[in-house]
Write a structure and sequence with these properties.
This protein has 276 residues and is an alpha/beta fold. 39% of the residues lie in helices and 18% in strands. The protein has a 9-stranded mixed sheet with strand order 1-9-8-7-6-4-5-3-2. Helix 2 crosses helix 9 and helix 5 packs antiparallel against helix 6.
């Protein structure tokens, strides 16, 4: 029943969503529309230098490390992902940072305690940061990883140095209707707690998002799976944040599909924030 209520709410949200897509075409500057991140002048990618595990309070987390830069950077993959999702991005960013690429609980080779929420995954990242001494890291998350990054910044404001949230949504009903419908149908034939997660969470409101105090960059693709109105909402609630909508991009084209674009996107913003 909750699934179908979510779909109905997505349909209701579509009216404003369609209007925002049209408005984006007519007024791209209003959304800080940017071109596909340049992939020229790239450094040579680095090889993975560590593949290991760490025991946290209630889960064993698998992670990889790229590079040996002075500053730490954490990459957080999306729903159903693994270290393979962002390894290309890690290999380029590893030329500048020491990049940590953890697998979320219930994903990849990490443990499965049987329960998963964004707050639990954010708690895992917080413990990961504290255990490895990575305070004030830049945290870049994609999709569910972006939600985890925002949750981390809201719940543990002293830990991240900056957050780049790519493709986050504030509530399930802000998805374009085709996405939750497809997830719901898949869940009928093969129930999965990772599908349940996307259909029921997160439930960010303005007060929650306004508790984020670190520098934040809220990013989505022009043809993302959530409406542009939601990206604007998150940006407006996270005080002092920056926002960008990548022209022509979808949910993953500039992240898990092309790590070179991830590198360029991060470099452009972090340089402006004097965090590069």
């Amino acid at each position: 029943m909750k699934t179908f209520i979510t779909i109905l709410m997505c349909l209701a949200a579509s009216f404003g969503g369609f209007a925002s897509q049209i408005d984006f075409v007519m007024n791209p500057q209003k959304y800080n529309a940017i071109d596909t991140p340049s992939v020229s002048d790239l450094p040579a990618p680095v090889e993975m230098r560590e593949d290991t595990f760490i025991e946290l309070s209630d889960v064993r987390i698998h992670y990889q490390v790229y590079g040996e830069g002075e500053k730490p950077l954490i990459l957080v993959h999306g729903n159903g992902g693994s270290v393979n999702s962002l390894k290309e991005a890690a290999s380029y960013l590893g030329s500048r940072f020491t990049v940590y690429l953890p697998e979320s609980r219930c994903h990849g080779q990490s443990g499965d305690p049987g329960v998963i929420t964004y707050e639990l995954m954010a708690k895992d990242i917080a413990e990961f940061i504290e255990a490895l001494g990575l305070e004030k890291s830049t945290v870049i998350g994609h999709s569910d990883g972006a939600i985890n990054a925002l949750t981390l910044a809201a719940k543990y404001p002293d830990l991240p140095g900056a957050v780049i949230a790519c493709g986050a949504n504030s509530r399930p009903e802000t998805f374009k209707p085709y996405f939750p419908f497809g997830v719901a149908v898949a869940n009928i034939f093969k129930p999965d707690k990772l599908n349940d997660l996307m259909l029921t969470l997160p439930q960010f409101d303005g007060e929650y998002l306004s508790s984020i105090t670190c520098p934040a960059y809220i990013v989505c693709g022009e043809h993302d799976i959530m409406w542009l109105t939601d990206t604007v909402y998150i940006h407006e609630c996270v005080k002092g944040s920056d926002m960008a909508v990548i022209k022509g991009a979808d949910h993953s084209s500039y992240m898990s599909h092309d790590g070179r674009q991830t590198y360029s996107l991060a470099k452009d913003w972090l340089e402006k924030k004097d965090l590069w």
